[in-house]
Design goal:
The complex is a heterodimer of chains A (230) and B (121). Chain A has helices spanning 2-5, 8-28, 36-50, 55-67, 69-74, 77-82, 84-89, 91-115, 120-126, 133-143, 147-171, 177-199, 201-229. Chain A is mostly helical. Chain B is mainly alpha-helical and 121 residues long. Chain B folds into two domains: 1-61, no CATH class; 75-121. Chain B is built from six helices and no strands. In chain B, helix 1 (3-24) packs across helix 2. The longest helix of chain B is centred in the C-terminal third of the chain and has 36 residues, at 85-120. The chains are: A mainly alpha (230), B mainly alpha (121). At the A-B interface, helix 2, helix 3, helix 4, helix 5 and helix 6 of A face helix 1, helix 2, helix 3, helix 4 and helix 5 of B.
Chain lengths: 230, 121
């Protein structure tokens, strides 16, 4: 079994089959927690654990799928460009929103970490949790955090965004499509953006824009915020 | 436009982004720089939307699956959070909701400010 699963084709096949199955499940029973990303991750972890398949074996194939995040991020310029008029019209509100949101994210994470008694290393790992993974890892490393924890916090944050964004925005009456996209991208990076794209073209484009901007602002401000709390 | 040409354009831009990241040692990763490059190329008309349409439709409509392997990676590292899982989850949920709501309000508020400003002029 181990020999069979160590072939990268195993990880690729498992991911495709499970994800496609979870989309089918979502189309049958549509409620928020039945999110293909969430159910997909849980199912794969479950399958690997039950059959005692080492994570490294899965990762060998998973890496091929993970690789496509590179070109997929580049192409986020397309939905953004389609919203060029809206972008020009809302340039100042967008920049203000992403900047304020990123600053607020850093402060609230630092503050809550302090309350829960997290040490400096853990706090440094969590600070960049709202931004896209390559930036977040870079930031955590430079702050002396543990990048593996950063990866988990970024994924969990993204899942929360992808699963609940629509409900949260509705609940707090954030109705403007530009505002919706910007808040999703700022709070929950590319993973939340999958939800924004689902919600509409405007939301998708704006969320994609916020990924890059929020990453940039966060990288600039994170070192100062960490010294604020430690 | 054929798929190979589309892929060539996208990977060419991604490569340029990675190169700029490495060459200047920037904090922005290559793929985000690539996104900015492609946006500039759209703006200047060097690359047209329909020149990357098929690949971009494929990637964007299936964006979620590319995150699955990273998510499964949780199983390898969650023990680093032993004894702190509940506090960790609390921080995740509270801050994500707060940031989303706060950002949305700031955008909507500044939209109103800008509009009022234009009216006063």
């Amino acid at each position: 079994m181990t020999m069979l699963t160590s072939n990268p084709v195993f990880g690729i096949f498992l991911t495709l089959v499970v994800y496609r199955g979870m989309i089918h499940l979502k189309n049958k029973f549509n409620y928020p927690l039945n999110n293909p990303l969430l159910t997909g991750i849980i199912s794969i972890i479950f399958i690997l654990s039950v059959f005692r398949i080492p994570y490294e074996n899965y990762k060998a194939g998973g890496d091929y799928i993970h690789f496509f995040l590179g070109p997929a991020t580049v192409i986020l310029a397309a939905p953004l460009y389609k919203q060029l008029d809206l972008l020009k019209k809302n340039l100042l509100p967008i920049l203000t929103g992403v900047f304020a949101g990123s600053l607020f994210a850093l402060i609230s994470i630092g503050f809550l970490s302090k309350i829960f008694g997290f040490d400096q290393m853990l706090t440094a790992s969590l600070l960049p949790k709202s931004v896209t993974m390559p930036i977040g890892i870079e930031v955590a490393d430079s702050l002396g955090g543990i990048s593996s924890i950063t990866v988990i916090s970024i994924v969990v944050t993204g899942i929360i965004g992808a699963v609940f964004a629509e409900k949260i925005l509705l609940l707090f009456k954030i109705k403007d499509k530009v505002a919706q996209g910007i808040s999703i991208g700022t709070a929950s990076h590319a993973l939340g953006t999958t939800k924004a794209i689902e919600m509409g073209e405007v939301q998708g484009g704006m969320s994609g824009l916020a990924i890059g901007l929020a990453g940039f602002f966060t990288a600039l401000m994170a070192p100062f915020i960490l010294t604020l709390f430690f | 436009m054929d798929i190979l040409k589309e892929l060539g354009i996208i990977f060419g831009i991604l490569f340029a982004g990675e190169f700029i990241n490495g060459f200047f040692g920037l904090v922005l990763p290559g793929n985000v720089i690539g996104m900015m490059l492609l946006f500039v190329l759209f703006l200047s008309g060097v690359v047209k939307l329909n020149q990357v349409e098929k690949v971009s439709n494929f990637l964007l409509s299936n964006l979620t699956i590319f995150f699955l392997p990273a998510g499964v990676g949780i199983m390898k590292y969650y023990n680093l959070l032993e004894g702190k899982i509940l506090a960790f989850l609390a921080v995740m949920i509270i801050t994500t909701v707060l940031v989303m709501v706060f950002t949305g309000y700031v955008v909507q508020f500044s939209q109103r400010m800008v509009k009022n400003d234009n009216v006063n002029k």
